[in-house]
Amino acid sequence: MAYWLMKSEPDVFSFEDLVRKTEKGEAEEWHGVRNYAARNNMKAMAIGDEAFFYHSNIGKEIVGIMKIVALAHPDSTGELNAKGEVVWECVDVQSVKPFPRAVTLAEIKATPELSELELVKLSRLSVSKVSEAEWKLLCKMGGL
DNA sequence: GCCAACGTTGGC
DNA sequence: GCCAACGTTGGC
Question: Which Gene3D superfamilies match (predicted)?
Fold first, then answer.
């Protein structure tokens, strides 16, 4: 079981949007990732892996937990290459639970134990890894 | 709105 | 295969 962190701009797709879909029994395709490192992380995901949902730009905070419900598959919004293949892939996710308290980027940066978090070190990576120790600490900071 | 970090592209 | 130019992301 691995842990991840995935970013979305909430005015495009927010955690609340994901909760609404999950309540209807639907899953969300995490489409639109156009970065190889992020794609490789998604290909490494297993069903049941959990991920933090981070609101970038607006909020800049971790707002909840989601889980991987489908392995990486071709991105339905992905462009085709010269051979007619879809280059980009993505996983499907559903919400698990919101954080009682959102954990802001400022708080994360102020926490020495989180100084190695990929969210901090590789700020432009939209799908990053989280270690088990980091995961537990962030859950605690989020009030879980 | 600016800028730093970083990925991608294209000329050589 | 190197590197400069350019585009994009995301924090401030």
Answer: ph1033 like domains (3.10.590.10)
